[in-house]
Amino acid sequence: MVKQLLRNHSSVRIYDGTPISKEIVEDLIATAQMAATSHFVQAYSVVWVTDEKKKEKLGLLSGNPRQFETSGGAFVFCVDFKRLQMAGKLENVDIIADSAENVLVGVADVSLFAQNFVIAAESMGYGICYIGGVRNKPEEISELLNLPEFVFPLFGLTIGVPARRNEVKPRLPVAAVLHENEYNAQKYEELLPAYNETLEAYYNSRSSNRKIDNWTKQMADFLIEQRRPFMNDFLARKGFNWK
Fold first, then answer.
1. Residue 147 contacts by C-beta under 8 Å, 6 or more apart in sequence?
2. 187 and 144 in one domain?
3. What is the model's pLDDT at position 131?
4. What is the structure's pLDDT at 242?
5. Same structural domain, 11 and 100
6. Could you tell me which residues are beta bridge partners of residue 159?
7. Measured between alpha carbons, how far is 13 from 159 in angstroms, rounded to an integer?
8. CA–CA separation, 166 vs 210, rounded Å?
9. Is 213 a member of any domain?
10. What secondary structure, in 3-state letters, does 197-218 show?
11. Using CA atoms, how far apart are residues 77 and 109, in angstroms rounded to an integer?
12. Are the beta carbons of 78 and 110 closer than 8 angstroms?
């Protein structure tokens, strides 16, 4: 049953507006907290945005206004070393937060925590969508949510009762991501064109937003230039200098 739930995941971008209760949100957070965490640091925090004006602004800043407007719950998942800094002070220690390793630990912790949250929510019949667009305006969103030093927004997440569900988008074949004993890049020459055909058929046959496109073209267009070059300076201002 759990496996089928995972295999049926698709992002939901339009909800019916039914609000999510505090009881459900707290239950989902408690469930999410049982995710694995590196060295038990639990380097995550979540801001639940219930203020309608802030929710509207968050939607505009992240470039996803309709999702936030119709969602039953709007959240920003953050890497958080502020709480760890406070823990260090209780022990009369100045912690080192601004290393590349700790940034990676925080990103991994938040991602595992969030995925537990998502699976729990989907098991209850809700739809969700991750919002990477919060990193388009991280400074403004940090100000909006009063995020202190050593805390930065990694992604947003909307949840709610779906007004419409999308078809499941085909992922890469298992052979493209599974390597045995050593990495094999040569197989991509055969696997990627075949995957392009699969994705082209999906885009051409889905019930809405049909288009002509494939995976390698999408990735080439996406990665041909540096994305969000301001993030390095933003993270430094938040106290993360990649030492």
1. 47, 78, 141, 153, 238
2. no
3. 97
4. 84
5. yes
6. 73, 128
7. 9
8. 12
9. no
10. HHHHHHHHHCCCCCCCCCHHHH
11. 11
12. yes
Is 242 contained in some domain?
no
The CB density around residue 12, as the number of other CB atoms within 10 Å, is: 23
Environment class of residue 121 by beta-carbon count within 10 Å: exposed (0-12), middle (13-18) or buried (19+)? buried
Is residue 74 domain-shared with residue 178, that is, in the same domain? no
Structural domain includes residue 217: no
**Tell me, what amino acid is at 157?**
L
Residues 6+ apart with CB under 8 A from 241: 98, 235
135 and 182 both lie in a single domain? no
In a domain, 23, yes or no: yes
List the domain range (segments joined by +) for residue 102.
2-167+226-237
User: Nearest-5° angle of CA 15, CA 140, CA 19?
Assistant: 25
In terms of pTM, does the model score above 0.85?
A: yes
Q: Are 102 and 46 within one domain? A: yes
CA dist 42 and 39 (Å) reads 8
Q: Which amino acid is at 131?
A: I
Per-residue pLDDT of 1-37, as tens digits, reads: 899 999 999 999 999 999 999 999 999 999 999 999 9
For helices 100-123 and 22-32, give the axis angle rounded to 10 degrees: 130
How far lies 63's CA from each of 35, 68, 164, 182, 217, in Å? Answer: 29, 10, 20, 40, 23
My answer on whether 156 and 199 are in the same domain is no
Predicted local distance difference test score (pLDDT) of residue 54 = 97
